[in-house]
Amino acid sequence: MRTPIARGPAAPPASLAAARQPPPARTVTSSKPALAHGRWLWVLLGAFVVRVVAQPAAWLTGWRVLPSFEAWHSGALSYAWLVTAQVTLVAWMTRTASRVTSGAEVPAPRLGGLLLAVAGLYAAAMCVRLVAGVTWLRGHWWFDAPLPTVFHLVLAAYLGVYAHYHALAGARGAREGG
Fold it and tell me: Are 165 and 108 in contact (CB under 8 A)?
């Protein structure tokens, strides 16, 4: 028996057609996690910006309502390096808070898990620093610096909220099939 000859272009096999399709766009399936996490990111960013602005304000104005210029940092970095790091952090924090709030930040569960661990270790280290500085290491230049330590805890909290967004929203997306 002869096989009939197909006329016209043959359709590609289904597996090839599927391979040619662009991958589906990854988006956040619900804006609730984005909004809830985004609000906290903005609050923590605001607290950190207050810290960044308050240190030079204390130096320039001499306002008694603000702690002294020296109280704002432990001296581990020169002020020039500190400001450079702070401006870089504020830029990154602004970008990530904007992306999370708008839903443009694609959740990455693995990144979330890693960042949760880093944030937890960071926060634990700063808690030890704070307790040690007010107890057995009082007077040590790095440990006896409660104000910078509190703002390190703000940064650890920001990182924790950002990580939680990735871990939680990523896990929800996986459960919902997205």
Answer: no
Query: What separation in angstroms does the CA of 35 have from each of 52, 104, 164?
Result: 25, 11, 13
Cα torsion 173, 114, 96, 58 to 10°: value is: 150
Residue carrying the six token digits 């940092």: 73
Name the pTM for this structure: 0.79
* SS3 of residue 83 by DSSP: helix
For the chain, list residues with pLDDT below 70. Answer: 1-31, 170-178
Q: Where are the domains of the chain?
A: 31-173
Comparing CA positions, the residue from 48, 41, 38 lying closest to residue 89 is: 48
Residue type at 59 in one-letter notation: W
pLDDT for 63: 87
Tokens of 60: 């320039």
Query: Helices H, strands E: what count in the chain?
Result: 5, 0
Radius of gyration over alpha carbons of the chain, in Å? 25
pLDDT tens by residue, 98-127: 999 999 999 999 999 999 999 999 999 999
